[in-house]
Amino acid sequence: MSRSIIRLLTCGSVDDGKSTLIGRLLVETDSVPHDTVKAAQSVRRSGSTIPAGEIDFSLLTDGLEAEREQGITIDVAYRSMSLLNGKRLIIADAPGHEQYTRNMAVAASRADISLVLLDASRGIRPQTLRHLTICSLMGVARVIIVINKLDAVGYDQKVFETLKNDLTPSIERLGIKDYSFIPLSALHGDNVVYRSDAAAWYSGPTLLEHIQNWEGGVAKEKAPAHMGIQMISRAENFRGLSGTVLNGEFKVGDEVVVLPSKREAKVARLVTFDGDLEVAAHSQSITMVLEPDVDATRGDSIELKSGFTLPETRYTATLVWLGESELIHSRSYFFISGSTQVTGMVTSIRHKLNINTGEHVSARTLAMNEIGEVEIALDTPLAVNNYSNSRETGNFIIVDRVTMNTVAAGMVAHPLRRSQNVTEHHYEITSQMRASQKGQSAKVIWLTGLSGSGKSTIANALEKKLFSLGVHSYILDGDNLRLGLNKDLGFTREDRAENVRRVSEVAHAMADAGLVVIVALVSPFKADRDQARALFNADEFFEVWVETSAEICAERDPKGLYKKAAKGEIPNLTGIGQDYEAPESAELILDGTEEINANVERLIKVIL
Amino acid sequence: MRSSTAILKELEDESIEIFRETAAAFRKPVLLYSIGKDSAVLLHLARKAFYPAPVPFPLLHVDTTWKFKEMLTFRDEIAQRYGLNLLVHTNQEGVRDKITPFTTGISEYIRVMKTVALRQALDQHGFDAAIGGSRRDEERSRAKERIFSVREPGHRWDPRQQRPELWRTYNPKLSDGQTMRIFPLSDWTELDVWQYILENDVPVNPLYFAKERPVVYRGDQMIMVDDDRYQLRDGEEAVMRMIRFRTLGCYPITAGVDSTATTLQEILDEITEVKLSERATRLMDGEKEDSMEKKKVEGYF
Q: Is residue B205 predicted with pLDDT exceeding 50?
């Protein structure tokens, strides 16, 4: 069954005549309301050389006001048109000079066909390779290389053939299978919808024909039939699992498993408003009733028992970084795949891709518009496929836990089998048992604040007090740990995130041993502290902000750090070169200039 | 060209998926019901998405007090027929300040009675997600709209800070003060909507069908005199004309078109032939290029 809606991506900038090309395609297929065409005949942008009364095709596709003032569009816009064979074409236009990779990746993520525009008079440019790389990366099925502005080179066949020969090796190297070249003039309408007389030497299809003759759209997915559970549908005497079928099909009577639990059941009904189905195919939204009605929840998925995806926690993946702030490895992010949302982190960056040359470059982070191959570790097993086998079930997005912005697009390369070989053992003596043997309960006191705010001093006084009360405790001091466990880490955002992660894991082990753990660590970033907190039960973890003004800390300067920072010797000192994100939900705020015993008393009251 | 049944089915499946994602991922969603054809399709899709369970969220209608009488009758009938929880909100401050389409200029009237009213209603009920029937083919600034579109505190839309939206993997997460607008009909066209209404027997408002109606002329636009609040010019009298409406809104600022289409099939024939953007019949949009974008930034749908 082929799809009726085809999605097209157009790559290129204003200079390549892209807006003009789309505008002409729309007008010549009668896809634009006539009053809109009329407006494009009368409105002119400043500097336009198009004679009054003629259609400025580019005006039909540019969008927002601010962008039109600059004469460029900088986001993704969508437009629908009917093809002459009855199918629907949805054009995603991802123009713009800045944030190019980001916008194009967004538009390419759903595109079946991609138009890569080239200005015949200017030849192959770095951006051409960039466009082709992203098309290949995002799995666009058909790539059409449009050699535009042929009028500017006198419709010279040699120009066309040279460009074609020069570009073909790169396309082959990128593994793009279905590609072709079309010589064209968007301005004069040659080979867009109508065949060109001026370039009569070209006998291949016009652009419209080549889009229309695409017979893909069949889900040639090499991954198991899959239905992510979006919600549980409950009505009188009814409980069903609602979701969209992907990759393959489900039939009544099929033996299925719920993932990740691997509970088994049979498909009893495939319910829709328009009546029950015997078979539900790719992209159909249905409600499945299972027999027996096994436990399943939003975020779980259903696959056939005869061949299903093993849920894993560790994968390698390709990321396109979309966020304004860069990737921080070892920081916890949300990973969303379909309706499944888990937490996890990027544990290492294998390399990043130089998108202009195709080279692999070593990297410690990924900034906006950068593409990298990474390893990820999820806190909960997730059933996803390799992106090359299924775009639909092989993708995920990464969401920042504080801003909730989508910061990366991910494409699964393959699972890292090593996670399967690690199994958590459950021992019989529990944390509570160990703690009560000592007559105490396990706690973590997490002191955060600027360098020089008094964390270590307070930790020391608190431990002395606890010791005198017979409480078994231990101090994890940031500086001391950097002499051993963390001596490979620096002070960048990423290293600080990893520092916090390691310290919180050690604190977790110690709390599990039944101790009262006192952590004295600058830990300037909220996301990192939240991640630490997430390891513990609500009554175990106490975030304590030692609030001392930056001026007083600099005056105290017990380690001479502020003086060095003032001389420019330390770039990342918190409060000087890096921000301190004040806690919003600390259990306790201590005034670092207060008399030490008063602060210890306040802590003791909260802890015991 | 007609939208094939296969195209409609693909669009329907995708919209249903969006509805389910909304119902499951948000604390308190609401469906913005404007009584027009897009709302009619939206509601029909919602009923399909959750079947056999009922639609799990209320409908909200922002009543400017200037809607066509037939719209309100129809609204109440539909709510009753399908057992829906219908909420109606009017900006009472606007009523008190006597803001009408005749007193303040159309854009100020829209701002107070529609945009501000909508913000009031969303805040008052604490809705974190509002589902609307906007389509990308309606207007240029809508063409760049996301399906899950974040609004900053105060319901402001920042077109430069839109979240990237990839595949069909939606990000429904909100940070403090943010809300979400959701557009399940993003990929639909006007023709799809009518074709779908025809194929699925979706009830739509009688104002969409041609009938003799009392009209006056404002420029070359025909305005229906729906009640005696309409300010006629000296000596002016309404004349009866066979018209219908392509979009529905506040009657003094929604122009009718000459038409003989009295069935869905005839409406379809008509819009396949007349190639005019549908918002051309709204007086409000013609005020200035990009007026829709400005309204959206302020919190309009």
A: yes
Regarding the domain delimited by A226-304, which CATH topology (the fold level of the hierarchy) does it fall under?
A: Elongation Factor Tu (Ef-tu); domain 3 (2.40.30)
Fold annotation for A5-212: Rossmann fold (3.40.50)
> Which of B142, B165, B195 is at the close of a domain?
B195
**Yes or no, beta carbons of B178 and A404 under 8 Å apart:** yes
CB contacts < 8 A (A, B): 168
Q: Residue B174 falls within a domain, yes or no?
A: yes
Q: Tell me if B249 is assigned to some domain.
A: yes
CA-based nearest residue to A574, from A483, A478, A451, A459:
A451
User: What residues of chain B lie within 8 A of the CB of A399, using their CB?
Assistant: 171, 173
**Rounded Cα–Cα distance for residues A11 and A146 (Å):** 10
**What gap in Å lies between CA B141 and CA A62, rounded to an integer?**
9
Structure tokens at A538: 């609500």
Q: Grade residue A352 by pLDDT with cuts at 50, 70 and 90.
A: very high
CB proximity A283 to B under 8 Å: yes
pLDDT at B1 over 60: no
For residue B126, the SS3 value is coil
Q: Which of A64, A283, A341, A400 to mutate to test the interface with B (most CBs of B within 10 A)?
A: A64
Residues on chain A touching B136 (C-beta within 8 angstroms): 78-80
ipTM of the complex: 0.88
Q: Mind listing the pLDDT tens digit for each residue in A295-336?
A: 899 999 999 998 888 888 999 999 999 998 999 888 899 999
pLDDT tens digit string along B235-270?
Answer: 888 899 999 999 898 988 889 999 999 999 999 888
Contacts of A243 in chain B (CB under 8 A): 20
Give the CATH class of A312-419. Answer: mainly beta
In a domain, B88, yes or no: yes
Active site (annotated) includes residue A4: no
Query: What distance in Å separates residue A375's CA from the closest CA in chain B?
Result: 21
Q: Are residues B142 and B17 in the same domain?
A: yes
Q: Quick one: B89 and B128 in the same domain? A: yes
Architecture of domain A432-607 in CATH? Answer: 3-Layer(aba) Sandwich (3.40)
CATH number at residue B126: 3.40.50.620
Which one of B169, B287, B297 would you mutate to disrupt binding with A, by most A Cβ within 10 Å of its Cβ?
B169
Which of A436, A523, A549, A585 is catalytic? The answer is A523
Is A180 in CB contact (< 8 Å) with chain B? no
List the strands of the sheet with A473-477, edge to edge.
A473-477, A516-520, A443-448, A541-547, A588-591
pLDDT classification of A98: cutoffs 50, 70, 90 = low
B129-131 vs B29-32, strand pairing mode:
parallel
Q: Tokens 């997460």 appear where? A: B173
Where are the domain boundaries for CATH 2.40.30.10 in chain A? 226-304, 312-419
Element (H, E) at A183: strand A178-183
Give A244's contacts in chain B (Cβ within 8 Å). 13, 17, 168
Tell me where in chain A the CATH 3.40.50.300 domain(s) lie.
5-212, 432-607
CB contact under 8 A, B169 and A87: no
Within 128-147 of A, beta carbons closer than 8 Å to B belong to: none
Last residue in a domain, options B147, B168, B195: B195
- Domain for residue B299, yes or no? no
Q: Over pLDDT 70: what percentage of chain A? A: 92
Structure tokens at B51: 């079947």
**In the structure, what pLDDT confidence band is assigned to residue A106 with cuts at 50, 70 and 90?**
confident
| Inter-chain touch B20–A285, beta carbons under 8 Å | yes
User: Is pLDDT of A64 > 50?
Assistant: no
Domain total in chain B: 2
Q: What pLDDT is attached to residue B138?
A: 79
Q: Same domain, yes or no, for B112 and B168?
A: yes
- Partner-chain contact A273 B51, CB within 8 Å: yes
Q: Which residue has the tokens 């513990």?
A: A536
Pick the range with the lowest mean pLDDT from A281-295, A560-574, B231-245, B249-263: A560-574
In angstroms, the separation between the Cα of residue B268 and the nearest Cα of chain A is 15
For A5, name the nearest residue in chain B, comparing CA atoms only.
B7
Counting residues of chain A whose pLDDT is more than 90, the rounded percentage is 47
3-state SS of A67-135 is HHHHCCCCCCEEEEEECCCCCEEEEEECCCCCCHHHHHHHHHCCCCEEEEEEECCCCCCHHHHHHHHHH
Question: B277 lies in which domain range?
Answer: 203-287
